[in-house]
């Protein structure tokens, strides 16, 4: 499966580690929120990170997010950038 991703220019050195983020998420025991989505903390190459895992959408919404709308992850990333500014 191929992934589309956007990496913040300040974290280019973490690119290889971040491409394995699903494995890092599964190995982390530091859950800070677990409901429909889950947030966990992890240290990636001496950088404290929060990783968010989204609930898998139903088949119809998978199609919508793949071809029509921006993904939840993309929207979350851009909202976080706006809040940071």
SSE layout and pairing:
Blueprint: H1 15-18, H2 21-27, E1 31-34, E2 38-44, E3 47-53, H3 59-67, H4 72-84
Antiparallel strand pairs: 1-2, 2-3
Would you summarize the structure shown here?
The protein is α+β, with helices and mostly antiparallel strands and 85 residues long.
Report on this model:
This protein is an alpha+beta fold. The protein has four helices and three strands.
Structure keywords:
three-stranded antiparallel sheet; 85 residues; alpha+beta; 4 helices; 3 strands; globular
The main pleated sheet reads as: 3 strands, antiparallel
β-strand number: 3
Task: Briefly note the structural class of the backbone.
Answer: alpha+beta
Quaternary structure classification: single chain
Overall pLDDT score: 89
Shape: globular
Helical residue percent band = 25-40%
Strand sequence of the main sheet, in spatial order? 1-2-3
Uncertain segments: none
From the alpha-carbon coordinates, what is the Rg to the nearest angstrom? Answer: 14 Å
Number of helices: 4
